[in-house]
Structures are given as C-alpha cells and as structure tokens.
Amino acid sequence: EAAVTQSPRNKVAVTGGKVTLSCNQTNNHNNMYWYRQDTGHGLRLIHYSYGAGSTEKGDIPDGYKASRPSQENFSLILELATPSQTSVYFCASGVGLGNYAEQFFGPGTRLTVL
Amino acid sequence: GDSVTQTEGLVTLTEGLPVMLNCTYQTIYSNPFLFWYVQHLNESPRLLLKSFTDNKRTEHQGFHATLHKSSSSFHLQKSSAQLSDSALYYCALSENSGTYQRFGTGTKLQVVP
Known about the structure:
The structure holds two protein chains of two kinds.
Chain A: E1 4-7, E2 10-13, E3 19-25, E4 31-38, E5 42-49, E6 56-57, E7 65-67, E8 73-78, E9 87-95, E10 102-105, E11 109-113
Parallel strand pairs in A: 2-11
Antiparallel strand pairs in A: 1-3, 3-8, 4-5, 4-9, 5-6, 7-8, 9-10, 9-11
Chain B: E1 3-5, E2 10-14, E3 19-21, E4 24-26, E5 33-39, E6 46-51, E7 57-60, E8 63-66, E9 76-78, E10 87-94, E11 101-103, E12 107-112
Parallel strand pairs in B: 2-12
Antiparallel strand pairs in B: 1-4, 3-9, 5-6, 5-10, 7-8, 8-9, 10-11, 10-12
C-alpha cells in the first residue's frame, strides 16, 4: 500500500512568518508534488520534483519554495506567509509512466495564516 | 498550455438515478492520459480510473468513462447513483510521459435519498 505522510496536519501561522510543510513517502517514487486545494480552483500544482536534488515550478509557484533532499522527503517552504496562502496543502508521490500512471496523496495540511 | 474543464461545480442527484460528470480537455499532445480522482469528505484524493486508449471504455467500482480524442472528452458515468458516491470528483490530464497531472476545478456530487 502506497504511503505518503505529511506534517504538520494543521498549522496556524502569522503573516510574515516562515512556514515549512513536510512530506515523506515510502513508495520509492521518483516524482513528488505539492498542491493547494481551494474551493472553485480545485487542485493547483505549486512545485514538483523528479528526484532527490531536483525541484520544478508548477502553475502557481510564487511565494513558495520547495526542497527535495532525498528520495523520501519533499518540503514546501513559505518564507513570508500571507493570508492568501491560507489553504489545504496536499503532497503526492507518483509513478508517471504509461499504464502505471497514478498519484498517491497524503492526508493534507490545513494552513491558516492570520 | 494544457487545461481541463469541468463545467459543473455541483451536481445533485436522487439516489438510483444515473450519474454523468463532464470533463473536456485541451492539449497539444497526441497521446494524453486522462484520470478521474475521487475525494470523499475529510479524505485525500484517490485514483478512480484512468485511460489513454481512444474510444475504449474503462471501468472501476461501478463507474466508467471513455476517452474520446475526437471531442477531447472523458466524461464519468455510473448507471445508478448511491448515497456513498457523494464526493468531490476531479478530472486530470497528463501527457504521455506522465511527469505531472493537471487537474480540473472539480465537481461536487451530492446524492440525496
């Protein structure tokens, strides 16, 4: 069974503060992803990674950084959090190739920026 | 760039009636992969079904969809809605290599007695 975990599950931050969201996967998948989920917008891709040491910008990268120090770990960093970044954040790992294409999502992190 | 359109934000159905959730897409790739993910309340999205074969019906857990490249569509259907089908449904698109998936805005399905 695929396993993606996220921490923290809930976070309240202050405007201008630094926030780090962590993701760990035990699937040995090369690809990892960070999304935010907002009503009316669906799942929007923030950053993704093809493997340790790589990060790529997704569709809405502004205000976010990502770090992939190992195959298992992928972090999302908000250097200066703003209220507009209040959202639910999902991490996913995935196999992209052919018939095996699928993404496995973590449980999500609810972030509130006050 | 690629895009996925789900025109219905909310679909409310009576239990036992057929389900059809619309998904259309735009892409420059000739061999796109299309996916449906389902997200129940307080859970994370999980894959429901996927396809990359034109005009072939794919089925899973009572749902089915057919990729039609001629109309760029991948509508999700079920013959008879159940209360447990109430959830948020996402259509997603990937290019052939599957590096990342682009999601639609989602359709919330509410099945009522």
